[in-house]
Amino acid sequence: MRGRVVKQIHAYLLLLPALFFLFVFTHYPALTTLIDSFMSTPKAGRSAVYVGMENYQIMIEDPVFWRSLSNNLWFAALTIPLSIGLSLMMALWVNKKLAGQWFLRTSFFLPTILPMIAVANIWIFFYTPGYGLFNQGLQTLGFAGQNWLGDPRFALGAVIVVAVWKQAGFFMIFYLAALQSLSPSLREAADIEGASSWYFFRRIQWPLLMPTTIFVLINAVIDAFRMVDHIIVMTHGGPDNASSVLLYFLYQIGFQFWDQGYASALTVVLLMTLAVIGLIQFFTLDRRAHYQ
């Protein structure tokens, strides 16, 4: 009994440094943010005071918040399936024996290693009115060029394309690793039975890839609500808040308007939304997962 207690003490002592940093940089900031969401913003000569649900009431009545939330939901609804579907198609393609396979894998993964600021500046050149790559292509085909980032109709779609281009290569790596872990005998048995490639994917590969899909999907949802760098560089949330998302709105409230209480309330809502979505995804999709 004494030896077991000593081992447990040693185990907790080994975990203590990690627990310390986890508390200091994760749990403590989350707790202080929750407390600040019920407080007013401190000003010069005036400390913060308890205001109850006032910050949340302001949020409910703020049309810019609802516009940002709507944009974020559209951003997530489009980037998540597009990036996952594209990454899966790329993984299935480069998993085959192809000439220049290493070049294709490197090309697909290259956007992942580029900083988002650099990616945004590259795509600004593509979207530039008049002489941008896309407008030159449209004009060559006889169509009028568009102000992709300056038109409310296209601004959100333009930043969605950038996000999908940046994410797909990263998710491809996980699918490629999962495909390579599948036993080759599965493909051989399917060939013997005369199964088509589509049937083999739908009935064998896709169910066995479900654990990877759960992991990728949760990360894609988190990315859909935390990606803001390219929006800051490309559109600044405009025009007329057409490309503003929750995290960019939070950045404006917290660091441009210096409203600490309101920004804390926005942070709490954002974290709770991500937590609920993540738990629903995990417990819903985990039942359909097949683990080897």
Automatic annotation (TrEMBL):
Keyword Acyltransferase belongs to the record: no
Stretches assigned to the ABC transmembrane type-1 domain: 69-281
Topology class, membrane: Multi-pass membrane protein
Cellular location(s): Cell membrane
CDD domains (UniProt xref): TM_PBP2 (cd06261)
PANTHER family named among the record's database cross-references: ABC TRANSPORTER PERMEASE PROTEIN, INNER MEMBRANE ABC TRANSPORTER PERMEASE PROTEIN YCJO
Protein name (Swiss-Prot/TrEMBL): Carbohydrate ABC transporter membrane protein 1 (CUT1 family)
Organism: Jezberella montanilacus
